[in-house]
Amino acid sequence: MKNKLAKKLLAVVLAATLAAGMLVGCGKTATDTPAPTNSAGQTTPDPTKPADPTKPADPTQAPKEPVVIKYGSHWIPELDPNYKDEVTGEYTMAEARRQAALAGLQAIKDEYNVVFEFVQYTEGTDVALMKSVLAGDPYCDIATLWNGVEATVLGQNVLQPIDKWADIFNDEETSWMLDDKTYGHYYLLSFPSVYVPYFTFIYNATLVEKAGLEDPAAVYLKGEWTWSKFEEYCTKLNAFYANTPADGAVSEANGVVKAYVTDYRYAGLAAMFSNGGAIYDSTGIAVNNEKTIESAKWIQKLHENGLLTENGYGGMWDRSAQEFQKGNTVFTDAPNWWLGGTGNSLAERGESQGIVPYPRADRLSKDSDEYGMPNTVGDSCGILKGVSEEKAELAVKSYRLFWKTFYATLGSDWNKEAADRGFDITNEKFGKDILECFKEVKKNLKADMSGLLGFKGTWESIFGKSLYGEDGTSSDYAVAVETVLPEFQKVSQNMEAILASGEVHDNVAPEVKSGVVVVPVGTDLTKIDVTKYWTASDQIDGELDVTKGRVEYSNGFDGSTAAIGIFEKAMKMIVADKSGNENSSRAMVVVYNPDNKTAPTVTVKAELPKIKLDQAPAEINWVDFIESAKDADGLDITKVAENIVANISTLDTSTPGDYSVVLTITDYAGNSVEETLKVTVE
Fold first, then answer.
1. Per-residue pLDDT reduced to its tens digit, 446-487
2. How buried is 477 (Cβ within 10 angstroms: 0-12 exposed, 13-18 middle, 19+ buried)?
């Protein structure tokens, strides 16, 4: 099945107008026609109506007691319409969404005799799910995967394929719920409805108008918004604003307003999807296919011709939004959470923020199925292994009906959605076109699966290096990308092997913590007790033996303790769990003179920090009260917080006032000095 967020999400909101007719069990109207019944008074099927493929073959066989489907999430208030704030007792969900969720719950109860039990993960999503599947007791039936954890969970092989039920998402109304195939199978269901992609292509409509150019939204709606048309716009805009100073507070755009300032990573990804390319799609690795290569070359062309000004290789990814906010660029790809702020900034200057789908490759027609805009896959859902096939089927069908009903009930106010994101849809000249393009963006969204597989970061690196000629990389993307293919293929092969194994794969690295390694000069670091300075634990294996780890030295420190000094992040302990997952932690090394007998030199801050009323004494960092504390060799004693101890026997943080606190400052050789502070609780 070809899953398109393009048609998926638009269909969801268009269904809003059918909401009243879609909900089950919401009551009849005066014009309802009674369903036909047999002699026993039972409802008989209407032969003129097609059967619902998701409805049980024989509803009379539904169990009397509802089937409980556990729906897991990291944050229950997001899902449960009956969740109340523990303090206020008020519902936490916005009322419109709450009513939509209640309608969804009623629909699955009426249709499948199913009730959702919302459960919240008590630890990290990946850890909670893996541990439960390994124990043979799935945490939930439907598992919400949030914040990009999909790649980790998929690699754990704890999700079961849902191919058997993919056909129920064939309709336009719910096709958006099923993500594309990954390694030949359907594993993921989409969770939230989105209106704009992670990085959104926007423009300053006022600056376009001042340059005498037709509004891009109008150009798009006429079917003329192509790569070549965009090149023409950028050329004319650069010429028109060649002598218009940019705001120097942020801009590095040669001091003048530019046509297109952006981050090359998101411009490259957008160009790729606008030409039918991808990094990885349902067919496999696509980073080196003809369409993707052509897209990279087009961005290279914009770069070389000065039509695109990037944030710089490895630059600040959201700098372009700041440029746009200050009026330093006409077009940009901005993080979607910036849109309200950028729109407000433009409005304060009397300017208008517009949105338009990314220009399409010239070879494509206006309505080509190949065209799309990349939307980072995230906040998905999956069915855990260990859930019976019967219950898994019921979970998938209930998920579909719940969210179908939810969005049909909620509906969509396009005007409000667009306005909330800062787009000037009330503008008499181009507001209507901007609103239409806002809808078109949602219609053309396609899932970018590359982040799930660990490919995106590698692709961004090689693309940037080829763009800037970094590290001797070829400036020809087609040549440069060949260097990463073996890495991509290895990742792909490893994932395929894991998914084909049928076994749960522990891919969660252990946690390694470090303190400060304090040793006298001349110490043999290979013989120190590392358990004094490092601890390691794993969510599956429990406490790990750090003595079996390996130590590496860095930052100019070679392991020698022949000289007195402080060496930041000098020792790294690398520890592996039983599955071979590694993690590490760096420790500072302090080498001191054990023969030092001189008391340390301490300077207290001239203005002491205030202590908050009712602050727990254990939360007070007494290092903050010291300007400097050094031993006879000049070593900073404050590097180790335990070197400063406070006598708080007279301190009462529950009562405002001034108190005397005695600090004892001890250097690494054991020499001490006391300082009496007058602290204030306010």
1. 888 787 767 777 888 888 888 888 777 677 888 888 888 888
2. buried
Strands 516-520 and 582-592: parallel
Separation of alpha carbons 561 and 592, rounded Å = 9
Is residue 189 within 8 A of residue 144, CB to CB? The reply is: no
Give the burial class of 39: count Cβ atoms within 10 A of its Cβ; 0-12 exposed, 13-18 middle, 19 or more buried.
exposed
Which two structure tokens, joined as six digits, stand for 622?
């007494």
DSSP 90-133: -B-S-HHHHHHHHHHHHHHHHHH-EEEEEEE-SS-HHHHHHHHH
Measured in whole angstroms, the distance separating CA 129 from the mean position of its chain's CA atoms is 19
Q: List the one residue out of 212, 176, 238 whose CA is nearest residue 399.
A: 176
CA atoms of 387 and 140, how far apart (whole Å): 8
672 forms beta bridges with 666
The two tokens of residue 426 are 């009330």
Q: How far apart are CA 21 and CA 470, in angstroms?
A: 59
Q: If DSSP codes are grouped into helix, strand and coil, which group holds residue 582?
A: strand
Tell whether pTM > 0.90.
no
Domains and CATH numbers, the chain: 5-190+379-411 (3.40.190.10), 199-371+415-449 (3.40.190.10), 511-592 (2.60.40.10), 601-681 (2.60.40)
Rounded Cα gap, residues 570 and 555, in angstroms: 6
Containing 142, the helix (H) or strand (E) segment is: strand 142-145
Q: If you average pLDDT over every residue of the chain, what do you get?
A: 87
Query: Which two three-digit tokens encode residue 294?
Result: 């052509």
- Taking CA atoms, 443 is separated from 291, 373, 530, 596, 597, in Å, by 21, 9, 57, 73, 75
Q: In angstroms, rounded to a whole number, what is the distance separating the alpha carbons of residues 126 and 139?
A: 11
Band of pLDDT at residue 598, cut at 50, 70 and 90: very high
- Here the tokens at position 186 are 């359907």
- Report residue 12's pLDDT band, with 50, 70 and 90 as the boundaries: very low
Residues in the chain: 682
Looking at per-residue pLDDT, the higher value among 56 and 293 belongs to: 293
Report how far residue 588's alpha carbon sits from residue 515's, in angstroms, rounded to the nearest whole number: 8
The closest of 193, 146, 148 to 173, measured between CA atoms, is 193
Q: Which one is predicted more confidently, 148 or 249?
A: 148
The tokens describing 65, both together, are: 């007691």
Distance CA 509, CA 575 (A): 9
Cα separation, 334 vs 324, whole angstroms: 8
Q: What CA–CA distance (Å, rounded) separates 28 from 21?
A: 10
d(CA 287, CA 461): 13
Q: How far apart are CA 224 and CA 432, in angstroms?
A: 18
How sure is the predictor about 281, in pLDDT bands with cuts at 50, 70 and 90?
A: confident
List pLDDT tens digits, range 618-656.
899 999 999 999 999 999 999 999 999 999 999 999 999
Which residue is listed with tokens 């930052």? 555
